[in-house]
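Continuing the batch. This is chain 6 of the set; chains 1 through 5 are on the previous pages. Same settings as before, nothing changed between runs. Recording input and output for traceability.
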Amino acid sequence: MHRHQTLAALSVVLFAGSCLAADFSGQGALDATRKAVALGPRPPGSAAIARLQAMIRAGLSAHGWAVSEDVFVARTPVGQVTMRNIVGKLAGSSGRSVVFSGHYDTKAIPGVNFVGANDGGSSTGWLLEMARVLPSLPRKDDVYLVFFDGEEAFGDWSDTNGIYGSRHLAAKWNRDGTLPRIKALFNVDMIGDKDLKIVDEMNSSTSLRRLVRAAANDTGYGKYFPEYGGAIEDDHMPFVRLGVNAMDLIDFDYGPGHAWWHTAQDTMDKLSAHSFQVVGDVMVAVFQRLEK
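Output for chain 6:
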């Protein structure tokens, strides 16, 4: 899924401020995750991911999002695979945009019933809960919710095997002029772990990292955003490489010694509504600050 690189201590710059969180429901995000995970393994091109795609489209449409799809054929080590990014949009008036994203596929692991409760499931459930919350918040910018297909590699990760969906959408948005209008992009991944610790991801925008840490402290959740960082290759990176102000929010320490990552142990019992609540409240606070 990702290549986790060196950890290093980072200094943090905070600013004062407070905001009222909207009614994000950690339990609602957990329930949405449970419905996705109940479909079983959801690798690209599978019947299960097709059912999940229908659930995502319905969840977005139910809350007034304009839904579009970015469908493409990816060349992978196992052959050509049709993939589908799903994009929800709320229109604003500023000509700028804020993007929240995450992947909804699970890694195909031969011989393993990998249901990806945290890795693929939690980002899906969290985004679906944000789809309910965000329309009620004041906004001046366009808002996008992006569900990426094909984040996982087929076998071993490489520069060309993995993050298929984000690479494709970043290139498409770069061509059609959407990319330069992005004010901020926040990608979430593996954020449901009961033992939540969001890495201070070092490839991410410094200004967004500061913004998120300030919001975490002001909402009382600072302890879940420790002051150490790691460089992670995730769905934000195709956008970072094209100059977008982007940030990855990920807990990449999953289980004792990271033992549950990409195993059959990545199941719903490892997740908690509280962890979803933490990330939801912080990101709602961040969004409100961006939209002032």
